[in-house]
Design goal:
alpha/beta, 12 helices, three-stranded antiparallel sheet, globular
């Protein structure tokens, strides 16, 4: 089955205004338009026709966009660290039509080149059939910028395809004095994922790719990669097994928010809307799991942690 064209696919273009209506109203956040982003938003209908699910901007991407931006009147806990971490590369899994990828490229390229901890590369990945869409929307839009200071790369990476993962490692490996890859630094600083938890048959492949990209040479104990995941609940019973398996290998917690001008107010979970429940999680690999062997898909999904249910219960009681 083509996962971007499941049977009886019937989806419409998303509306950024309605998708974050409650959040924008509650936090008084003004969202300025961007010409390149507007083009991606407006081309969704034709992109859905050509690329299916990958052509749509899914709702949690709009929340992620606000989290990535540092110019909003919001304070987050934890703050987004993409622009303040060490030198390396950022990878987005399932980048789709590039809505978030283009925003990240614009943010990262605005950092002065002399900044010691500047991200050097941004890699947008998806199925090989989707890469032309990413190239059209992101590479063409990004190359318009004259001050581009990072390498923007579009590369195929099917979830669970370890060979494609290793090809990404070869492409990102920094060269040492001898002209061979330098193993001293982790290749990645961050992995970004937006609205990827939906089809149960993709849970094990997605988790397998996350495990590969959070292991050496992509990540190390002393230089762990940080994973930022935006997620909207659509079918909780079907989606919970992914988070249970994810919690076996990763520590994760939700992003909290408050207005900068209201420091005395309590923190709230970011993405708690009236009409839907969204999360942005920040995760890191549990150090002890770096020595574990990754089992086959069936066994991988059998492993479970109650961290996700605990977070849901805390959120439920907090909202009462």
């Amino acid at each position: 089955m083509d996962t971007n064209f499941p049977p009886d696919l019937s989806i419409q273009a998303s509306d950024p205004t309605s998708s974050l209506r409650s959040l924008v109203k509650a936090l008084s956040v003004e969202q300025d338009g961007d010409s390149d982003e507007d083009i991606i938003v407006s081309s969704q209908s034709s992109d859905i026709e050509c690329y299916g699910i990958a052509g749509r901007i899914w709702e949690a991407a709009y929340a992620m966009k606000i989290y990535l931006e540092s110019t909003t009147p919001l304070e987050f806990d934890p703050q987004c660290s993409i622009c303040t971490g060490r030198s390396g590369a950022v990878v987005e899994l399932g980048a789709g039509n590039g809505f978030l990828g283009l925003k990240m490229a614009q943010i990262l390229s605005s950092i002065p080149e002399q900044h010691d901890n500047q991200v050097k590369s941004l890699v947008l990945t998806d199925l090989e059939a989707v890469c032309p869409l990413l190239e059209r929307n992101c590479l063409n839009g990004f190359l318009k910028a004259t001050n581009a200071s990072i390498d923007l790369i579009v590369q195929p990476l099917e979830w669970g395809n370890l060979d494609q993962g290793w090809r990404l490692a070869d492409r990102l490996a920094p060269m040492g004095p001898s002209g061979t890859p330098d193993p001293t630094d982790a290749l990645l600083t961050h992995i970004v994922c937006s609205d990827l938890v939906y089809f149960p048959e993709l849970f094990a492949p997605l988790l397998r790719s996350l495990l590969q990209l959070s292991s050496p040479p992509f990540s190390t104990i002393t230089q762990p990669v940080e994973i930022i995941i935006s997620y909207m609940i659509r079918n909780l019973p079907k989606e919970t097994p992914f988070w249970n398996a994810f919690g076996t290998w990763f520590n994760f917690s939700p992003v909290l928010v408050r207005r900068k001008s209201s420091a005395k107010l309590d923190w709230e979970r970011f993405g708690d809307l009236e009409e839907s429940t969204m999360f942005i999680y920040v995760a890191t690999r549990k150090p002890e799991t770096l020595s574990w062997s990754v089992p086959d898909d069936l066994e991988l999904m059998k492993h479970g942690s109650d961290a996700f249910e605990t977070l849901l219960l805390r959120n439920m009681f907090h909202g009462e």
